[in-house]
Amino acid sequence: MDSLERTFTLSEMSKTPAFIPTIAHRIWQAWWRDKGVLQSEIETKLRAALCPEAVPTAYVAHRGDTYLGSALLIESDFAARPHLTPWVAAVWTEEVHRREGIGTALVKRMAQLAFESGFSRAYLCASDDNTPFYEKMGWKVLEYHVKQLNVLALDKPN
Question: Using one digit for the tens of pLDDT, what is the confidence trace for 35-57?
Fold first, then answer.
């Protein structure tokens, strides 16, 4: 793959609302389909995140009109830990575009937004399989196997 094919744009979801149905579908399919949540409910929540505030917000990675991936920054992704905020959530990269730096760019952008908004730490949940991906970016495991996920944190750089 040449470098031109590897380039992509990160855009605020509010500036690229045409991607909302695709983002909702990926989130629903990956995390909510088997829990009885409707895809339309996910889309409604995404549309509520179209405000200019940093939390909640979402970014989409794309090449023109081609969806490559997305990530959210939300107040809480884990009801058992309401005091932890904000959370990088629903990180998704299309399978054919993985290993192109898209997921890394999305996660870094979400963490940067958290820090720019005055938070000194950001959180996320990851499976054992995905934890090393985040650890390579400096995320540290705070708790292992909480509801079958690991809770990770990233502190604001000095």
Answer: 888 888 888 888 877 666 667 88
